[in-house]
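Async update (no meeting this week)

Hi team, since we skipped the sync, here's where things stand on the single-chain job. The sequence we agreed to prioritize is pasted below, unchanged from the tracker. I ran it this morning and attached the output directly underneath so nobody has to dig for it. Comments welcome in thread, and please keep replies under the output.
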Amino acid sequence: MNQSFFKDKVIIITGSSRGIGKSLAVLLGSYGARIVLNGRNAESLKKAEAELLQKGIEVISINGDISTEEDRLRLIGETVSRFGKLDVLVNNVGLSMRGEFADLSPLVIETAFNTNSVYPLLLTRIAIPEIRKSKGSIVFISSLAGLWGLPDLSVYAAAKMSLTAIAQSMRVELQPYGVHVGLIYVGVTKNEPDKTVMDASGRPVLIATEKRPFETSTERVSSGIASNIVKRKKQTFIGINGRIYLILCRYLPGLMEFLSLRRYKGIKKAHK
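Output:
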């Protein structure tokens, strides 16, 4: 991969105080990119910023919640004011949920869909004029759940699946401007110990942190995202689990449905 591609590129990464977002910030910053961190937790964000600064990375952090138009405008505005341009927007922020659809509160349905789809799209709309100027990249971090709806993850899967449609549409609309639109399908990724998801009522619950089959490190995911940007690829499927999942969804849908049912029965049995 051509690491020099990122020299002096200005890159916004949402949800970058931890996890995949922070790992990507460290990686691209080490390649010479100028990084803009973004997140809701000011303390975690400042901690991440300090970590990058210690590594000699040019970075600023802009605390804010992209669910609000004010913070979306401020994120793009302050970035351009500081660096004079915007080359790459990585829509990484997301929030997962657990629970059968019939049991989900309206709040969970709205929050899961908005956080994983609507808010990133509203931010992207604001960023497009600057990305057009730089002929840069817009990247959406999706999930393998966005290829096939899974039990207990219905709204999360639906929101991630919607990113495929919007990316396909935007790719055609922005092609005359030389803008790259990339979609990253991430599978099972190693979690931080305090990572939470929403349960059916909307309460945050810790998810399991034990090692799972085909688990991918955040560093491996970050490398795949970087490669997608450099090669201006339409889609990237991360890790062996991503490739297996793609094959099942495209060529063996019957088997995929069988495995989904088996997973659902396993979830029901575990909850008894």
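Quick observations from my side:
The chain has a mean pLDDT of 91.
The radius of gyration is 18 Å.
Reply here if anything looks off.
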